Amino acid sequence: GTLVNKYKLHLDQADILEDSTFKVMFGDMSASQFTAKLVSECNLTPVTAKELTEDTQLNIIVPVKKAIEEKIEFPEFVQFVERDDLNTVEEIEKSVNMYSREYNLTKEDARDFINYCKNLDLRPADFKNRDILDVGGGTGGFKKAAEKLRIAKSVVNIDPLEILLPKQKEGRSVRGRAETLPFKGESFDIVLAHASVPWVLAGQGRFEDIPNVVREMLRVTRKGGVVKMSSIGGLEGTFSQKTMQQTARMTREVLSELTRLHQENSSLRVKVVKINRKDALSQPSFTYLLEVGK
């Protein structure tokens, strides 16, 4: 709210600022791209856009980073590790162009696939002969790209807003909700949620549904399989008070349900991966990945 008032941004400009700041925090947008977006989509002058970029770094990125590092606490059964992602946004764009060209993908679908891989700590080899479920996959960019690579055994995309598509040879799209997945138990080897659930539920204030989502994703995962969700971390800070409070509560709900599930089945392997990146408004950037292995 402070930056919105300082720069007298309209509602649509504020939405662009918030969305772009999240992308910077997740390493999906560089400082120069952030500034350019403020110029092209918010109609700010280059000078004002540069000042807002610097203010965003000082008043949002740095405080949130510090708040996360200081306030996240995980249960004892959760393994916490860190790894570095050394790819710059520019290098990622080169990969997008390569995948788009070699596999006949739109750049949007290629970018979705690459963002899934880097934020969920996946490699194409991980998909070999696996049945994959993408929860909240929207228009199915990841599914379409994974099918073009012809590595996975099957890829299913489920989203409440997805128009039901006919069954395809390599995969399909299904209309449905994450809290009541329409699949039999142990149907998939890899179950993914990338910037979808439980984020969307938290944004809608539906915190009571978050435990069901966690339980359902694990229910449909085979023994030896894995659930991966990004980004899960106690984002308490000053991005916007409402957003930070929602994210912190979301994280607590997820961890509380995992604690209950671990008490029922102590063989569950729960890991949080902090992925450190560079080139985020000239400051270190990071995101959190939650992995639950059965």
What is the number of E strands? 8
Describe the oligomeric state of these chains in a short phrase: single chain
Helicity, in percent?
40-55%
Structural class, please? alpha/beta
Average pLDDT score:
85
Shape: globular
Write up what this structure looks like.
- 45% of the residues lie in helices and 21% in strands.
- The chain has helices at 2-6, 11-25, 31-42, 46-71, 89-102, 107-119, 141-149, 199-203, 210-219, 241-264; strands spanning 78-84, 131-135, 154-159, 171-175, 188-194, 221-230, 269-280, 283-293.
- Strands 1-7-8-6-5-2-3-4 form an eight-stranded mixed sheet, with helices on both faces.
- It is globular and about 55 Å long.
- The relative contact order is 0.15.
Topology:
Elements: H1 2-6, H2 11-25, H3 31-42, H4 46-71, E1 78-84, H5 89-102, H6 107-119, E2 131-135, H7 141-149, E3 154-159, E4 171-175, E5 188-194, H8 199-203, H9 210-219, E6 221-230, H10 241-264, E7 269-280, E8 283-293
Parallel strand pairs: 1-7, 2-3, 2-5, 3-4, 5-6
Antiparallel strand pairs: 6-8, 7-8
Helix pairs in contact: 2-3, 3-4, 5-6, 6-7, 9-10
In short:
With 294 residues, the protein is of the alpha/beta class. It contains ten helices and eight strands. Strand 2, helix 7 and strand 3 form a beta-alpha-beta unit.
Comma- or semicolon-separated keywords:
globular, eight-stranded mixed beta sheet, 21% strand, 10 helices, alpha/beta
